[in-house]
Prior knowledge:
Number of strands: 8
CATH architecture: Alpha-Beta Barrel
Order of helices and strands: EHEHEHEHHEHHHEHEHEH
CATH topology: TIM Barrel
Strand content: 15-25%
Shape: globular
CATH class: Alpha Beta
Bound molecules: glyceraldehyde-3-phosphate
Structural class: alpha/beta
Amino acid sequence: xxxxxTRLVLGNWKMHGNLADNTKLLNALLAAPRAAxxxxxxxxxxxxxxxxxxxxxxxxxxxxxxxxxxxxxxxAYTGEVSGGxxxxxxxxxxxxxxxERRAMHAESDQLVSDKARAALTAGLTxxxxxxxxxxxxxxxxxxxxxxxxxxxxxxxxxxxxLKMVIAYEPVWxxxxxxxxxxxxxxxxxAAIRAALKGAGAEQVQILxxxxxxxxxxxxxxxxxxxxxxxxxxxxxxxxDFLAIAA
Length: 246
Ligand SMILES: O=C[C@H](O)COP(=O)(O)O
């Protein structure tokens, strides 16, 4: 990682948590000494817990955000949550295009780009998730799949891209315990950075996600184009999440 990019460790709670457990987790994150690290930390929580998270983390160095956003600003869109609503809870980040949403909610590459644009319009930082399936990797298509997924996002223009975070999450590594090797991840991260092209590509944070644990974080983070992690399961256990950030 170059000196110009700050490391970012972002937790994705997915559909986990309840008021009592969240309080314990957030308090444990807040209680940990962090003076020794410049690593940015954040948590992306389910919508119902944004108020609780905002209240707990307000004034701390830990940011928070959501896991999805509507492309619409307001209106008759039952079940949707707008960027303006997320800003009401002082969200900094919002995940867009997580593979679980691409797969289970049929989110297209274009829709993911539209969500990234909606996030930017609301003043949020979109974390654009990309990643190939195992079949695609085995077919040698990892980079071409990611290039396809990123194309509509890059079409938003370099000014927009500079305000985003990109997360490379190979689908076969998510929740499986099977992490990409640092070399596999670096190869894709370098391809992503090359695809960003243009002025400022060196400034964009590119996170790796997929079974990141304290035991493998350091070797991943040692790679030149890996700027941190998007952490699922391990972000639900304070000591594991803190150990990754440390
Ligand atoms: O958003 C996080 C990723 O899906 C990774 O999840 P995981 O760390 O549980 O493999």
